[in-house]
Fold this protein.
Amino acid sequence: MRSMGLALTFGQDYSIPTSAGWFLKSESDTADEGIVGRVRNGDTEAFGILVRKYEDFVFTLTKGLTSSADSAGDVTQETFLRAYKAIRRFEKKASFKTWLYRIAYNTALNHIKRRKHEIEFEEAHEKIPTGADSDEIAIRATMKQLIDRLKPEHKAILILHYYDDLKYEEIAEVSNCPVGTVKIRLFRAKYELKKLWEKYAI
Amino acid sequence: MQFNCRRILDALASPSSEFNDEMIIDHIENCRSCRDALNLPEKYEITLQGTGPSRAPDTVFENIMRIIRIENGLRPPGVLAEITTILPLVGMALLLILLIFIKLDNLIEFGQVVVENLSSSEVLNYTDAIRQLAHQIQGILKAALASQLFLAAGILTVSITWTFAIIRLRDTLKS
C-alpha cells in the first residue's frame, strides 16, 4: 500500500526543498513525470490519468484531516485543480506524488482553519464506540474516531505513515518540516492515540 | 519499564519538558520497551497498518475534469497558452501604431486644407473662403478629438494587457 501527496494557497511556493537529494525515483515516479510533461504541452486529458491514479490517496488524506467525507471531496477537488494550475512549477527534484500530497496537506489544513468552529461543534456531539465489539468493522470504526480526535498535524502524520506508507523523508517534504520533527510528531501522535484508546476504547 | 523510560514518554505529552526532541527520538529509537509502550494492542495496530485508502466519490474525477476542460477551452495550456498571450500583445501594438498614424494623418489633412483654401483661385469671396475653412477645420478637430480618445483607450488597453503579460512571463521564468 503506497501512495501520495499534498499542499496550499495560491501564490504559495510549491517547490521542493533542495535537500531532497535522497529521493530515489521509482518507475511510477518516472511515468508520472512523462504524464506531467504531456499536460504541460497541452494534453489536458493526460491529467485525468494522474487524477485517477491518486484521487483515492488524496481523498484518504484529506478525509483523515478534515474528518468529513463531504469536505474531503471538496478539498480533493481543490487539490487537483491547484496542482493543474501550478503544474508548470512542479520540479522533478522529488516525486509528483509527494508534490501533490503537499498541496493536499496544505489545502486541507487551510480548510480546517476556515471550518474550525463547525468541526469543533461536530466533534462535541460525536460518540466514540466502546471497546466491547471485537470484530474488524468495530475496531476500524473505533480507530477512525480515535484518530479523528488527534490534532491535525498528528492525524496527518499517522495517515501518511500508516495508510500511505511514506518514508520519514517524504512525510517531511509533504508537511514541510525537518525529518526530526516528523519523528517526534509521530511519537507524540502514537502516544496521544494510545492515551485516547486507553480512555475510550478499553 | 525503567524510570528514565517513563520520563521520556511523559515528555511526549509536554513540549516543554527536560528532554529536547533529539534526546527523545534517540531514546525511543533505541529502546524497545518505549516503542512497545507507544503501540496499540496488536489487533488495533494491524488494523491501523492494514487500512487502505478510501475510495473517492466518482463525482470528484468528473468535476475536476469538467472544470479543467472548461478552463482549457478559455485558455489553452502549453504552447497554445503562450500564443494566446502573445497574440493580444501583437494586436495591441498594431492598434497603437494605427492610432498614431491616424493622428498624424489628421494633422496632415489640416495643413492641406489650409493651403488649398488660401491658394484656391476659384474662391473670390474671402468671407466665404474663411467660413468654408472654419467649417472644415471644425470637422478636422472633431475627428482629431475622437482619435485622441480612441488613442487614450488604446494605450490604456495596451498597458493593462502588457502588465498582465509581464506578470505571467515573470511567473513562467520563475518556474
